[in-house]
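Notes to self after the Tuesday call (sharing in case useful).
The group wants a holo model before anyone commits to mutagenesis around the pocket. I volunteered. Ligand is pyridoxal-5'-phosphate. Logging inputs and output together so the record is complete.
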Amino acid sequence: MPTLSEQCALGLERADAQHLRRVLRTHGRVDGSSVEIMLDGARYVSFAANDYLGLRDDPRVIEAGRAALLAYGAGAGASRLVTGNHALYALLEAKLAAMKGVEAALVFGSGYLTNLGVIPALMDKGDVIFADKLVHACIIDAAQLSGARLLRFAHNDMAHLAALLKEHRGDSTNALIVTDHVFSMDGDVAPLAEIAALAKLHDAWTMADDAHGLGIVPAAAPVDLWMGTLSKAAGGYGGYVVAAQVIIDFLITKARSFVFSTGLPPSVCASALAALEVMEAEPQRAARALALAQRVTQALGLPLAQSAVVPVILGTAEAALAAQEALKNHGLLAVAIRPPTVPPGTARLRLAFSAAHTDAQVEALIAALKELPCAR
Ligand SMILES: *Cc1c(COP(=O)(O)O)cnc(C)c1O
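Result:
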């Protein structure tokens, strides 16, 4: 047996050989801007953050957090079921529930922890989960943790989902269909109304992950569970699930990542609440992020953007890394996304647009993308 260090060194060598090694870089901030960052001593305009509405820098969001930090301290002190349930949670949960037009909400430590708690609380051995091929990794982890059988349908392919339901639904006790609402690496939107109709026909529950939809793409369809994150358009940190009151009551008792993990700091709740209020009061922010994404897809002849996320598919991990470097030479930062985050052969630049980007920044991006040898 190799030593643990030898084993890890071997794993890193293999990742290097496939251009799949991941390394941490330190990203500094340029004062006063939510889209300009410092990296290795150089200044870049970033198209690589999920802060689609520019809210992590909003003075109202910062001030709400600061006031709560001073008033209530740095941490929750305990899990919410013990003594960590600050009054701010109820306000934040009421706001989330109202925004989705559903009875109740429950806030978790992060979006990842939300999926990891919710899905295994509801699904068990003998049940079946139908998940879109491109759902976020934490949904897959959660499905595996639940012990239920996991079946994947081709991306947004309702004929395939219908066929899988027809063939396999009958073998299992309970069934859940789960999808991203807005897909994190593709930016396209799931056909939730059709999924809800198929679920009704085949006696299945439905769940949508709204991590990239909240504040950008309205959640119009009826699903049993909405989950999402407060770390993207809301600009802060934390996760949540929104559902009927009885479902939320059950999750408070059964979701292990809720029961056995410390609550979010009160200041984080306060910032999130302020961010949701700005999100609602200023819909022009979402409209701008979407319009900028659409301007870029139109200029490049790509399918019209449906959200603030635009993929520029390049194929190999090597090509995606080369494109990332080429953009850096223009002072632009977009991140190369490689397998296993995306399927093999579909490595890409993932562009994320923010209401805080200027027109000039987006024009510079378009010009640089047009110069890429491999982009359309
Ligand atoms: C980011 C993301 C999550 C995880 O949310 P965090 O709050 O960052 O843990 C879950 N689902 C999707 C689709 C995401 O993009």
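Two things stood out.
The pocket of pyridoxal-5'-phosphate is lined by residues 110-112, 136, 138, 180, 184, 209, 211-212, 229, 231, 239 (CB under 6 Å).
DSSP finds 14 helices and 14 strands in the chain.
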